[in-house]
Amino acid sequence: MKNLKVSIFTAVIVLIVGLYDIAYAYNRRYRNHNHGVTPFMILGVIFTISGLALIIMHWVR
Q1: DSSP string of 27-53?
Q2: pTM of the full predicted structure?
Q3: Taking phi first (over 0 means left), then psi (-120 to 50 degrees means alpha), and beta for anything else, what does residue 34 get?
Q4: What is the pLDDT of residues 11-28, one digit of tens each?
Q5: Would you put residue 36 in left (φ > 0), alpha (ψ -120 to 50) or beta?
Q6: Is the pLDDT of residue 2 over 90?
Q7: b/e map of 27-51 (b: 16 or more CB within 10 Å)?
Q8: Which residues cross the membrane (predicted)?
């Protein structure tokens, strides 16, 4: 894992996608009465955590 190079551009895009999925799931919750929100929320959390981890890995390098 020491030779893993992380692009800051990729890390920011993954973080933005995660935050967008969370916002989409939050707004969809009120329109569809909480149907079909869980997959978007799970993906949003995964992408957000991954984006933060990539940014930290970029700074540590």
Answers
A1: HHHHHTTTSS-HHHHHHHHHHHHHHHH
A2: 0.81
A3: left
A4: 999 999 999 999 988 888
A5: left
A6: no
A7: ebbeeeeeeebeebbebbeebbeeb
A8: 6-26, 38-60
